[in-house]
Amino acid sequence: MAVLDLAMQGLAVFGFILFFVLWLMHLMSIIYVRLHLHKKKSEVKQPFAQLAGVSLLKPLKGVDPNLISNLETFFTLDYPKYEILLCVQDKDDPAVDVCKKLLGKYPSVDARLFIGGKKVGINPKINNLMPGYEGAKYGLVWICDSGIRVKPDTLMDMTNQMTEKVGLVHGLPYVADRQGFAATLEQVYFGTSHPRSYISANVTGIKCVTGMSCLMRKDVLDQAGGLVAFAQYIAEDYFMAKAIADRGWKFSMATQVALQNSGSYSIGQFQSRMIRWTKLRINMLPGTVLEPVSECFLASLIIGWAAHHVFRWDMMVFFMCHCLAWFISDYIQLTGIQGGPLCFSKLDFAVAWFIRESMAVQIFLSALWDPTISWRTGRYRLRCGGTAEEILDV
Questions:
Q1: How confident is the model at residue 297 (pLDDT cuts 50, 70, 90)?
Q2: Is 237 tagged catalytic?
Q3: Which pathway does it take part in (predicted)?
Q4: Which contacts qualify for 237-243: CB closer than 8 Å, 24 or more apart?
Q5: What is the pLDDT, as a whole number, of residue 394?
Protein backbone atom coordinates (compact mmCIF):
# COMPACT_ATOMS: atom_id res chain seq x y z
CA MET A 1 0.00 0.00 0.00
CA ALA A 2 2.84 2.38 0.82
CA VAL A 3 4.27 1.90 -2.67
CA LEU A 4 0.85 2.50 -4.24
CA ASP A 5 0.33 5.65 -2.16
CA LEU A 6 3.75 6.91 -3.21
CA ALA A 7 2.93 6.26 -6.86
CA MET A 8 -0.38 8.10 -6.53
CA GLN A 9 1.33 11.07 -4.93
CA GLY A 10 3.95 11.07 -7.67
CA LEU A 11 1.25 11.07 -10.34
CA ALA A 12 -0.52 13.95 -8.61
CA VAL A 13 2.71 15.97 -8.52
CA PHE A 14 3.23 15.19 -12.20
CA GLY A 15 -0.30 16.43 -12.92
CA PHE A 16 0.32 19.79 -11.22
CA ILE A 17 3.69 20.22 -12.95
CA LEU A 18 1.99 19.40 -16.26
CA PHE A 19 -0.68 22.01 -15.53
CA PHE A 20 1.93 24.69 -14.85
CA VAL A 21 4.07 23.85 -17.91
CA LEU A 22 1.19 23.63 -20.38
CA TRP A 23 -0.46 26.86 -19.29
CA LEU A 24 2.89 28.62 -19.31
CA MET A 25 3.20 27.47 -22.94
CA HIS A 26 -0.30 28.80 -23.67
CA LEU A 27 0.54 32.20 -22.21
CA MET A 28 3.96 32.48 -23.87
CA SER A 29 2.48 31.61 -27.24
CA ILE A 30 -0.48 34.00 -27.02
CA ILE A 31 1.66 36.89 -25.75
CA TYR A 32 4.38 36.31 -28.36
CA VAL A 33 1.83 36.23 -31.18
CA ARG A 34 0.25 39.49 -30.04
CA LEU A 35 3.57 41.28 -29.59
CA HIS A 36 5.60 39.95 -32.52
CA LEU A 37 3.52 38.71 -35.44
CA HIS A 38 2.09 40.94 -38.18
CA LYS A 39 4.02 43.98 -36.99
CA LYS A 40 5.02 46.47 -39.68
CA LYS A 41 8.69 47.42 -39.55
CA SER A 42 9.06 51.13 -40.29
CA GLU A 43 12.80 50.91 -40.85
CA VAL A 44 15.50 48.38 -41.58
CA LYS A 45 17.44 47.34 -38.49
CA GLN A 46 20.85 47.85 -40.11
CA PRO A 47 22.33 48.53 -43.56
CA PHE A 48 23.52 44.92 -43.98
CA ALA A 49 20.00 43.58 -43.85
CA GLN A 50 18.85 46.01 -46.52
CA LEU A 51 21.70 45.37 -48.95
CA ALA A 52 22.31 41.64 -48.58
CA GLY A 53 21.63 39.61 -51.73
CA VAL A 54 19.44 36.53 -51.35
CA SER A 55 19.40 33.31 -53.36
CA LEU A 56 15.95 31.74 -53.22
CA LEU A 57 15.97 27.94 -53.60
CA LYS A 58 12.64 26.48 -54.71
CA PRO A 59 12.27 22.66 -54.66
CA LEU A 60 9.48 21.69 -57.06
CA LYS A 61 7.78 18.41 -57.80
CA GLY A 62 4.44 18.06 -59.52
CA VAL A 63 1.72 20.64 -60.01
CA ASP A 64 -1.31 21.48 -57.91
CA PRO A 65 -4.02 24.07 -58.67
CA ASN A 66 -2.26 26.79 -56.67
CA LEU A 67 1.34 26.24 -57.79
CA ILE A 68 1.55 28.93 -60.45
CA SER A 69 -0.12 31.60 -58.29
CA ASN A 70 2.09 30.68 -55.32
CA LEU A 71 5.28 30.80 -57.40
CA GLU A 72 4.30 34.08 -59.02
CA THR A 73 4.31 35.84 -55.64
CA PHE A 74 8.08 35.27 -55.50
CA PHE A 75 8.57 36.96 -58.87
CA THR A 76 6.90 40.11 -57.55
CA LEU A 77 8.83 40.52 -54.29
CA ASP A 78 9.72 44.08 -53.31
CA TYR A 79 13.41 43.50 -52.68
CA PRO A 80 16.42 45.09 -54.41
CA LYS A 81 18.73 42.13 -54.90
CA TYR A 82 17.67 38.49 -55.10
CA GLU A 83 17.66 35.54 -57.47
CA ILE A 84 15.16 32.70 -57.89
CA LEU A 85 16.62 29.23 -58.40
CA LEU A 86 13.87 26.84 -59.49
CA CYS A 87 14.83 23.19 -58.98
CA VAL A 88 12.99 20.28 -60.62
CA GLN A 89 14.24 16.71 -60.38
CA ASP A 90 12.55 15.18 -63.45
CA LYS A 91 12.64 16.78 -66.91
CA ASP A 92 9.15 15.38 -67.59
CA ASP A 93 7.69 16.94 -64.45
CA PRO A 94 4.78 19.28 -65.33
CA ALA A 95 6.33 21.85 -62.95
CA VAL A 96 8.92 22.52 -65.68
CA ASP A 97 6.27 24.08 -67.92
CA VAL A 98 4.99 26.21 -65.05
CA CYS A 99 8.52 27.49 -64.41
CA LYS A 100 9.12 28.28 -68.08
CA LYS A 101 5.85 30.19 -68.25
CA LEU A 102 6.84 32.38 -65.31
CA LEU A 103 10.39 32.88 -66.62
CA GLY A 104 8.87 34.14 -69.86
CA LYS A 105 6.37 36.37 -68.08
CA TYR A 106 9.02 38.00 -65.85
CA PRO A 107 12.17 38.30 -67.99
CA SER A 108 13.55 41.13 -65.83
CA VAL A 109 13.61 38.94 -62.70
CA ASP A 110 16.90 37.17 -62.03
CA ALA A 111 15.65 33.57 -62.18
CA ARG A 112 17.03 30.26 -63.41
CA LEU A 113 15.67 26.75 -63.86
CA PHE A 114 17.69 23.68 -62.83
CA ILE A 115 16.52 20.27 -64.04
CA GLY A 116 17.84 16.88 -62.99
CA GLY A 117 19.08 17.38 -59.45
CA LYS A 118 22.17 15.68 -58.09
CA LYS A 119 22.11 12.41 -56.13
CA VAL A 120 24.11 13.00 -52.94
CA GLY A 121 22.05 11.07 -50.38
CA ILE A 122 18.64 9.64 -49.53
CA ASN A 123 16.86 12.99 -49.05
CA PRO A 124 15.01 13.80 -52.31
CA LYS A 125 14.62 17.49 -51.43
CA ILE A 126 18.37 17.93 -50.93
CA ASN A 127 19.12 15.99 -54.12
CA ASN A 128 16.77 18.27 -56.02
CA LEU A 129 18.25 21.48 -54.57
CA MET A 130 21.93 20.64 -55.03
CA PRO A 131 22.46 22.23 -58.50
CA GLY A 132 20.69 25.40 -57.39
CA TYR A 133 22.68 25.58 -54.16
CA GLU A 134 25.96 25.13 -56.00
CA GLY A 135 24.96 27.90 -58.43
CA ALA A 136 23.78 30.36 -55.76
CA LYS A 137 25.65 33.67 -55.98
CA TYR A 138 24.55 35.45 -52.82
CA GLY A 139 25.56 35.09 -49.18
CA LEU A 140 22.06 34.40 -47.92
CA VAL A 141 20.06 31.37 -49.08
CA TRP A 142 16.32 31.17 -48.65
CA ILE A 143 14.93 27.63 -48.87
CA CYS A 144 11.18 27.84 -49.33
CA ASP A 145 8.74 25.03 -50.13
CA SER A 146 6.66 25.03 -53.31
CA GLY A 147 3.35 25.36 -51.46
CA ILE A 148 4.27 28.67 -49.79
CA ARG A 149 2.92 32.01 -51.00
CA VAL A 150 4.36 35.35 -49.89
CA LYS A 151 3.56 39.05 -49.71
CA PRO A 152 5.68 41.62 -51.58
CA ASP A 153 7.51 42.60 -48.37
CA THR A 154 8.06 39.08 -47.00
CA LEU A 155 11.74 38.90 -47.94
CA MET A 156 12.40 42.37 -46.53
CA ASP A 157 10.75 41.25 -43.30
CA MET A 158 13.01 38.20 -43.11
CA THR A 159 16.25 40.07 -43.89
CA ASN A 160 15.30 42.68 -41.27
CA GLN A 161 15.64 39.88 -38.71
CA MET A 162 19.06 38.80 -40.06
CA THR A 163 21.16 40.91 -37.71
CA GLU A 164 24.87 40.43 -37.01
CA LYS A 165 24.52 37.54 -34.55
CA VAL A 166 21.62 35.79 -36.32
CA GLY A 167 22.39 32.88 -38.62
CA LEU A 168 18.86 31.67 -39.43
CA VAL A 169 15.50 33.37 -39.84
CA HIS A 170 12.41 31.19 -40.03
CA GLY A 171 8.71 31.73 -40.52
CA LEU A 172 6.03 30.31 -38.23
CA PRO A 173 4.11 27.75 -40.34
CA TYR A 174 0.49 28.66 -40.94
CA VAL A 175 -2.15 28.02 -43.63
CA ALA A 176 -3.81 30.36 -46.10
CA ASP A 177 -7.59 30.72 -46.21
CA ARG A 178 -9.08 27.98 -48.38
CA GLN A 179 -12.48 26.37 -48.79
CA GLY A 180 -13.59 23.05 -47.28
CA PHE A 181 -13.48 21.33 -43.90
CA ALA A 182 -10.05 19.76 -44.52
CA ALA A 183 -8.64 23.27 -44.98
CA THR A 184 -10.32 24.40 -41.76
CA LEU A 185 -8.87 21.41 -39.87
CA GLU A 186 -5.39 22.19 -41.14
CA GLN A 187 -5.71 25.87 -40.31
CA VAL A 188 -6.92 25.10 -36.79
CA TYR A 189 -3.96 22.79 -36.15
CA PHE A 190 -1.39 25.29 -37.44
CA GLY A 191 -3.07 28.04 -35.45
CA THR A 192 -3.38 26.22 -32.12
CA SER A 193 -1.43 23.07 -31.20
CA HIS A 194 1.55 23.50 -33.51
CA PRO A 195 2.43 27.16 -32.72
CA ARG A 196 1.96 26.60 -29.00
CA SER A 197 4.87 24.13 -29.00
CA TYR A 198 6.82 25.91 -31.76
CA ILE A 199 6.72 29.37 -30.21
CA SER A 200 7.24 28.34 -26.59
CA ALA A 201 10.26 26.24 -27.62
CA ASN A 202 11.86 29.19 -29.42
CA VAL A 203 11.04 31.64 -26.64
CA THR A 204 12.74 29.38 -24.08
CA GLY A 205 15.85 28.88 -26.25
CA ILE A 206 15.04 25.47 -27.73
CA LYS A 207 15.89 25.48 -31.45
CA CYS A 208 12.62 24.48 -33.09
CA VAL A 209 12.57 25.16 -36.83
CA THR A 210 10.61 23.82 -39.78
CA GLY A 211 12.10 24.08 -43.25
CA MET A 212 9.04 25.51 -45.01
CA SER A 213 10.65 28.96 -45.14
CA CYS A 214 14.18 29.46 -43.80
CA LEU A 215 16.70 32.20 -44.57
CA MET A 216 20.26 31.11 -43.73
CA ARG A 217 23.85 32.28 -44.07
CA LYS A 218 25.42 30.24 -46.85
CA ASP A 219 28.95 30.47 -45.45
CA VAL A 220 27.75 28.92 -42.17
CA LEU A 221 26.09 26.06 -44.05
CA ASP A 222 29.28 25.61 -46.05
CA GLN A 223 31.27 25.37 -42.82
CA ALA A 224 28.97 22.50 -41.83
CA GLY A 225 29.65 20.76 -45.16
CA GLY A 226 27.00 22.41 -47.36
CA LEU A 227 23.66 20.83 -48.27
CA VAL A 228 25.34 17.51 -48.99
CA ALA A 229 26.09 17.10 -45.28
CA PHE A 230 22.34 16.85 -44.57
CA ALA A 231 21.38 14.48 -47.38
CA GLN A 232 21.47 11.46 -45.05
CA TYR A 233 18.52 12.82 -43.05
CA ILE A 234 14.83 13.05 -43.90
CA ALA A 235 14.33 15.94 -41.45
CA GLU A 236 17.12 18.00 -42.98
CA ASP A 237 15.68 21.24 -41.58
CA TYR A 238 16.24 20.13 -37.97
CA PHE A 239 19.87 19.18 -38.59
CA MET A 240 20.63 22.30 -40.61
CA ALA A 241 19.29 24.42 -37.77
CA LYS A 242 21.30 22.38 -35.26
CA ALA A 243 24.50 22.85 -37.28
CA ILE A 244 23.97 26.62 -37.36
CA ALA A 245 23.21 26.75 -33.61
CA ASP A 246 26.25 24.59 -32.80
CA ARG A 247 28.44 27.24 -34.44
CA GLY A 248 27.19 29.91 -32.06
CA TRP A 249 24.59 31.64 -34.25
CA LYS A 250 21.21 32.78 -32.99
CA PHE A 251 17.80 32.27 -34.61
CA SER A 252 15.07 34.80 -35.23
CA MET A 253 11.44 34.42 -36.28
CA ALA A 254 9.97 36.57 -39.03
CA THR A 255 6.99 38.76 -38.18
CA GLN A 256 5.12 37.26 -41.12
CA VAL A 257 3.97 33.64 -41.07
CA ALA A 258 5.06 31.03 -43.62
CA LEU A 259 1.76 30.81 -45.47
CA GLN A 260 1.08 27.32 -46.82
CA ASN A 261 -1.29 27.39 -49.78
CA SER A 262 -1.21 23.96 -51.38
CA GLY A 263 -4.06 23.33 -53.77
CA SER A 264 -4.11 19.64 -52.91
CA TYR A 265 -5.37 18.80 -49.43
CA SER A 266 -7.70 16.41 -47.62
CA ILE A 267 -8.25 15.04 -44.13
CA GLY A 268 -6.33 11.89 -45.12
CA GLN A 269 -3.38 13.92 -46.38
CA PHE A 270 -3.36 15.96 -43.19
CA GLN A 271 -3.41 12.83 -41.05
CA SER A 272 -0.59 11.19 -43.05
CA ARG A 273 1.50 14.32 -42.73
CA MET A 274 1.02 14.47 -38.97
CA ILE A 275 1.97 10.79 -38.62
CA ARG A 276 5.12 11.33 -40.70
CA TRP A 277 6.18 14.32 -38.61
CA THR A 278 5.57 12.38 -35.39
CA LYS A 279 7.72 9.48 -36.62
CA LEU A 280 10.55 11.89 -37.35
CA ARG A 281 10.31 13.53 -33.92
CA ILE A 282 10.28 10.16 -32.14
CA ASN A 283 13.48 9.08 -33.89
CA MET A 284 15.29 12.39 -33.45
CA LEU A 285 14.08 13.31 -29.95
CA PRO A 286 13.25 10.37 -27.64
CA GLY A 287 11.43 12.76 -25.29
CA THR A 288 8.68 12.90 -27.91
CA VAL A 289 7.19 9.79 -26.27
CA LEU A 290 5.73 12.18 -23.69
CA GLU A 291 4.05 14.26 -26.39
CA PRO A 292 0.51 12.81 -25.93
CA VAL A 293 0.29 14.23 -22.40
CA SER A 294 0.62 17.72 -23.88
CA GLU A 295 -2.63 17.28 -25.82
CA CYS A 296 -5.84 18.72 -24.39
CA PHE A 297 -7.95 15.67 -23.57
CA LEU A 298 -5.26 13.45 -22.05
CA ALA A 299 -3.67 16.37 -20.18
CA SER A 300 -7.08 17.39 -18.81
CA LEU A 301 -7.69 13.85 -17.54
CA ILE A 302 -4.31 13.70 -15.78
CA ILE A 303 -4.65 17.17 -14.27
CA GLY A 304 -8.28 16.52 -13.34
CA TRP A 305 -7.31 13.33 -11.52
CA ALA A 306 -4.55 15.22 -9.65
CA ALA A 307 -7.04 17.89 -8.58
CA HIS A 308 -9.46 15.19 -7.41
CA HIS A 309 -6.75 13.29 -5.54
CA VAL A 310 -5.45 16.34 -3.66
CA PHE A 311 -8.46 18.66 -3.34
CA ARG A 312 -11.33 16.14 -3.78
CA TRP A 313 -12.73 18.21 -6.65
CA ASP A 314 -15.11 16.51 -9.03
CA MET A 315 -12.85 15.07 -11.71
CA MET A 316 -15.27 15.30 -14.65
CA VAL A 317 -16.34 18.85 -13.81
CA PHE A 318 -12.69 19.88 -13.68
CA PHE A 319 -12.04 18.01 -16.95
CA MET A 320 -14.82 19.89 -18.73
CA CYS A 321 -13.79 23.28 -17.34
CA HIS A 322 -10.15 22.68 -18.22
CA CYS A 323 -11.04 21.65 -21.78
CA LEU A 324 -13.22 24.76 -22.14
CA ALA A 325 -10.41 27.03 -20.96
CA TRP A 326 -8.04 25.30 -23.39
CA PHE A 327 -10.57 25.73 -26.22
CA ILE A 328 -10.94 29.46 -25.53
CA SER A 329 -7.19 30.08 -25.31
CA ASP A 330 -6.69 28.20 -28.59
CA TYR A 331 -9.26 30.41 -30.29
CA ILE A 332 -7.54 33.54 -28.96
CA GLN A 333 -4.20 32.29 -30.27
CA LEU A 334 -5.64 31.33 -33.65
CA THR A 335 -7.14 34.79 -34.21
CA GLY A 336 -3.79 36.35 -33.32
CA ILE A 337 -1.88 34.22 -35.81
CA GLN A 338 -4.53 34.87 -38.48
CA GLY A 339 -3.97 38.61 -38.06
CA GLY A 340 -7.52 39.31 -39.23
CA PRO A 341 -10.99 37.74 -39.45
CA LEU A 342 -11.18 33.97 -39.82
CA CYS A 343 -12.70 32.55 -43.00
CA PHE A 344 -14.87 30.09 -41.05
CA SER A 345 -17.42 30.35 -38.27
CA LYS A 346 -16.95 29.70 -34.56
CA LEU A 347 -19.00 26.51 -34.98
CA ASP A 348 -16.62 25.33 -37.73
CA PHE A 349 -13.72 26.07 -35.41
CA ALA A 350 -15.33 24.11 -32.55
CA VAL A 351 -15.94 21.05 -34.73
CA ALA A 352 -12.45 21.14 -36.31
CA TRP A 353 -10.83 21.70 -32.90
CA PHE A 354 -12.66 18.75 -31.33
CA ILE A 355 -11.79 16.42 -34.22
CA ARG A 356 -8.14 17.50 -34.24
CA GLU A 357 -7.80 16.98 -30.51
CA SER A 358 -9.52 13.58 -30.78
CA MET A 359 -7.08 12.51 -33.49
CA ALA A 360 -3.95 13.35 -31.48
CA VAL A 361 -3.42 10.09 -29.57
CA GLN A 362 -4.40 7.96 -32.57
CA ILE A 363 -1.83 9.78 -34.72
CA PHE A 364 0.86 9.18 -32.10
CA LEU A 365 0.06 5.46 -31.80
CA SER A 366 0.05 5.10 -35.60
CA ALA A 367 3.51 6.67 -35.70
CA LEU A 368 4.79 4.19 -33.10
CA TRP A 369 3.26 1.22 -34.93
CA ASP A 370 5.18 1.63 -38.19
CA PRO A 371 8.69 3.18 -38.27
CA THR A 372 8.79 3.55 -42.07
CA ILE A 373 8.02 6.79 -43.90
CA SER A 374 6.53 7.35 -47.34
CA TRP A 375 7.63 10.74 -48.67
CA ARG A 376 7.41 12.03 -52.19
CA THR A 377 8.13 9.00 -54.39
CA GLY A 378 10.20 6.98 -51.89
CA ARG A 379 9.85 4.87 -48.76
CA TYR A 380 12.37 5.16 -45.94
CA ARG A 381 13.22 3.27 -42.75
CA LEU A 382 14.12 5.60 -39.90
CA ARG A 383 17.03 5.02 -37.56
CA CYS A 384 17.66 6.44 -34.11
CA GLY A 385 19.34 9.82 -34.37
CA GLY A 386 17.38 10.93 -37.42
CA THR A 387 19.23 9.14 -40.22
CA ALA A 388 17.30 6.93 -42.65
CA GLU A 389 17.76 4.35 -45.37
CA GLU A 390 15.73 4.09 -48.53
CA ILE A 391 13.58 0.98 -48.93
CA LEU A 392 14.03 -0.27 -52.46
CA ASP A 393 11.39 -2.46 -54.06
CA VAL A 394 12.92 -5.70 -55.30
A1: very high
A2: yes
A3: Sphingolipid metabolism; Lipid metabolism; sphingolipid metabolism
A4: 237/209, 237/210, 237/211, 238/209, 238/280, 238/284, 238/386, 239/386, 240/168, 240/211, 240/214, 240/216, 241/168, 241/170, 241/207, 241/209, 241/214, 242/207
A5: 42
